[in-house]
Design brief:
The complex is a heterodimer of chains A (420) and B (288). Chain A is an alpha/beta fold and 420 residues long. In chain A, 24% of the residues lie in helices and 32% in strands. In chain A, the strands form 4 sheets. Chain A has a 6-stranded mixed beta sheet with strand order 6-7-8-4-9-10, sandwiched between helices. A 5-stranded antiparallel beta sheet of chain A has the order 12-19-18-15-16, with no helix packed on it. In chain A, strands 2-3-1-5 form a 4-stranded mixed beta sheet. The chains are: A alpha/beta (420), B mainly alpha (288).
Chain lengths: 420, 288
């Protein structure tokens, strides 16, 4: 039986919303008086609620993580998954000791190295070689340990020719390669990796994933991997932990957890009426958005996807011109596609107060996406909301071959065939 | 899951509530290489792509000395204990600069490094300690300037002035350590408080400047009217600067009592600083 290397007991983390500044001193004194002197429970933590950012809370304390309990055994590769804001990053921060938990305790056996970012502490004026030492030391390596592995690191990075050039002259790809090379050669028993691997070119990404596979399977070290990318999580990890609104939703064999995750992300509709961060004069105002598939429960590649937007109109104006656009972004926030009522001939009636876009054969690769919705009335911006209507495109055996398109091979899928 | 060994010996336990005295000094030792690499980084990045390079270390003390000699020596006519004016001011400035650099740089350590601190863990104290050592390099270079000037005035004596090394020079390492630790202690307290209350940041540069006038940098303690002496002596830096001058130039009111007082204040502030800093480092990323 393998032994436990990480154990979390009732871990919670509270964040204060809004401004920290004016009023904090008096509040701190009040808090100190109540908790330390009178020995009462902390009033500012008691009124907290779970982390659901869509609904407006009554207090300005929010629990990013609430009563998290789990154990990780030696040599396991655990994928931590969840939607944006589910608490994944907070959990990583706690485990890598960047910030402390509000309550509970974390017990760790062995050295932890965490990679929340590649190239932390790189100094642009220093050469590649000097930065290897600096970055390695920041990540917890001793100097002689780095010297011993220096050749290996340089070799892995593939930037040998530039190793004595200041890194400010590097291309961004070279920079990332060098940074990952340092991290990949850490000798810690536990490795925590954030989605940082989603950088660099496809070939290098493959190399990184291969290296991570080596670390967990070949060398028997424990790996915690946080990602949105279900394919790489499934490939690398044996176990999974699904977080939702700061609580552990499911925990177990990776395939089960991934299925739970996909089930959560089916057919979502979202209220847009209360979104505060929006631009526009309000002559047209989105109230609700819905993303669904025509015949099955969730959105998948090469199936239909319907985006329905409901809106309100200002009745007091004459509408001469209007259009509604939807921009689709990938999880990195990069635009992958754009659809608009303006470049389609079969007009819809603006007075219907809803619009439905149908995408017949969705060519998007599996992963998480979000939308920007935009409306224009009489050549003025009426409403514009960014980063809403999150949806997940599920994995599917698109080509009926039992094989999937490898991850990192682009974000669109083509309907192709081999002809004679 | 059952543990083989129920009394598991964990290497690390992270808790929500920790004791104030939970400072991990052995962690600090493990990261000693990092400290030196930070020092190297500071030094290299300072002079890379500058024309004059390390010469910049000299320019500030030279010009300050000239200005001080003119304003306080010539115009105000403040006595200098019979030491050549340039030497008097230069010695004060060299020592004071080291202290004030240590203080001001450590006082912004959390804000300046929030990017690194927010991404990776290493004992946060490494950062301020590396600042102290980096400044030590700079101080050593400026000390060479002082020694050079002493050589010059030894060969070209100014009438009515005299100076010489004294046996206080053996205390030199202690004096430097006191300056560093006092600056570090105050800096740590300030940086910890400013993660939440930013107001203090505005006070630092200004406060350090005012504090200089309350220290015997531009006047010797012997020139202070007796009714104000008590206040000047209360300043822990006074004893240190006087001792520094006594060590190098043989003048100044060096007493064991004042050194003892400065040492006590330094130790108290340093301990307080380390404790507060240590308490703050765990969660400062959330509030800064």
């Amino acid at each position: 039986m393998s032994k436990t290397v990480i154990e979390l007991n009732n871990i919670s983390k509270a964040y204060q919303l809004g401004q920290i500044g004016t009023g904090t001193l008096s509040r701190d004194i009040e808090r100190f008086w109540l908790t330390k002197v009178l020995g009462k429970e902390d009033p500012f933590l008691k009124i907290g609620e779970t982390n659901d950012r869509t609904s407006k809370g009554t207090s300005d304390i929010v629990w990013s993580l609430k009563d998290i309990n789990f154990k990780i055994n030696e040599g396991e590769a655990v994928g931590i998954i969840g939607r944006n804001g589910a608490g994944k990053s907070t959990l990583l921060k706690l485990l890598s000791r960047v910030t402390g938990p509000t309550t509970g305790e974390i017990k760790v056996k062995g050295r932890i190295a965490s990679l929340l970012e590649v190239g932390t502490g790189f100094h642009p004026e220093l050469t590649g070689r000097e930065n290897i030492f600096l970055n390695g030391a920041i990540l917890g390596m001793r100097k002689k340990e780095i010297s011993r592995k220096l050749d290996e690191i340089i070799d892995f990075s593939g930037v040998e020719r530039y190793i004595d050039t200041p890194v400010k002259r590097y291309s961004s790809g070279m920079y990332v390669r060098l940074a990952f090379a340092v991290a990949a050669h850490l000798e810690s028993e536990i490795l925590i990796v954030d989605e940082v691997l989603a950088v660099g070119d496809a070939e290098f990404q493959k190399k990184c994933l291969g290296k991570m596979g080596d670390i967990s399977k070949g060398q028997g070290r424990t790996v915690l991997f946080v990602s949105h990318n279900m394919a790489s999580v499934q490939k690398l990890c044996t176990k999974g932990i699904l977080l939702e609104n700061g609580i552990v939703k499911s925990n177990g064999i990776i395939q089960d957890v991934v299925n739970d995750y996909l089930a959560v992300s089916k057919n979502s509709s979202e209220e847009l009426i209360d979104v505060k961060k929006r631009k526009g004069n309000g002559n047209l105002k989105f109230i609700k958005g819905e993303i669904k598939s025509k015949n099955i429960e969730f959105v998948e590649s090469f199936n239909s996807m319907i985006i329905k937007l409901e809106y309100d109109l200002n009745e007091n104006i004459n509408i001469n011109q209007f259009r509604i656009d939807v921009g689709i972004n990938n999880f990195m926030g990069d635009r992958v596609a754009w659809i608009s009522s303006s470049n389609i001939n079969n007009k819809f009636d603006i007075a219907d107060k809803f619009i439905r876009f149908e995408i017949k054969n969705l060519p998007l690769a599996p992963g998480d996406y979000s939308c920007n919705v935009y409306a224009e009335v009489n050549n003025e911006i009426a409403d514009w909301i960014t980063e809403v209507l999150f949806f997940n495109v599920a994995e599917k055996d698109y080509y009926d071959s039992g094989k999937l398109v490898p991850k990192n091979q682009g974000s669109i899928l083509l309907d192709y065939n081999i002809i004679s | 899951m059952k543990n083989i060994n129920p009394s598991h010996n964990w290497d690390l336990i992270i808790k929500g509530k920790t004791s104030l005295f939970d400072v991990r000094f052995n962690d600090l030792w493990h990261y000693r290489d990092l400290l030196l690499l930070f020092v190297k980084r500071d030094f290299v990045s300072f002079y890379k792509q500058t024309v004059l390079g390390p010469l910049w270390f000299f320019i500030q003390p030279i010009f300050t000395t000239i200005v001080f000699s003119f304003v306080f020596g010539k115009l105000a006519g403040i006595g200098t204990d019979g030491i050549p004016q340039y030497l008097f001011f230069l010695s004060g400035i060299t020592a004071w600069n080291y202290f004030s650099d240590c203080l001001t740089k450590t006082s912004t350590v959390f804000r300046d490094n929030v990017n690194i601190f927010g991404k990776v863990y290493f004992p946060r104290l490494i950062m301020p300690l590396s600042i102290i050592v980096s400044n030590l390099v700079r101080f050593a270079v400026q000390l060479l300037l002082l020694l050079f000037m002493m050589g010059y005035f030894y060969l070209n004596p100014v009438k009515g002035t005299s100076f010489s090394f004294s046996n206080g020079i053996f205390l030199f390492p202690v004096i430097v350590l006191l300056m560093a630790l006092l600056g570090l202690g105050i800096g740590l307290i300030i940086t910890a408080i400013t993660t939440k209350y930013k107001d203090l940041t505005f006070l630092v540069t200004f406060g350090v400047q005012l504090m200089m006038y309350g220290t015997t940098v531009i006047y010797p303690l012997s020139e202070v009217p007796t009714e104000y002496r008590k206040f000047i002596e209360l300043n822990p830096m006074t004893g240190i600067i006087e001792a520094f001058r006594y060590a190098f130039l043989g003048k100044g009111e060096f007493t064991l009592w004042s050194m003892g007082y400065s040492t006590c204040v330094t130790l108290v502030l340093l301990t307080l600083g380390i404790l507060i800093f240590n308490k703050t480092e765990k969660n400062f990323v959330d509030t800064i």
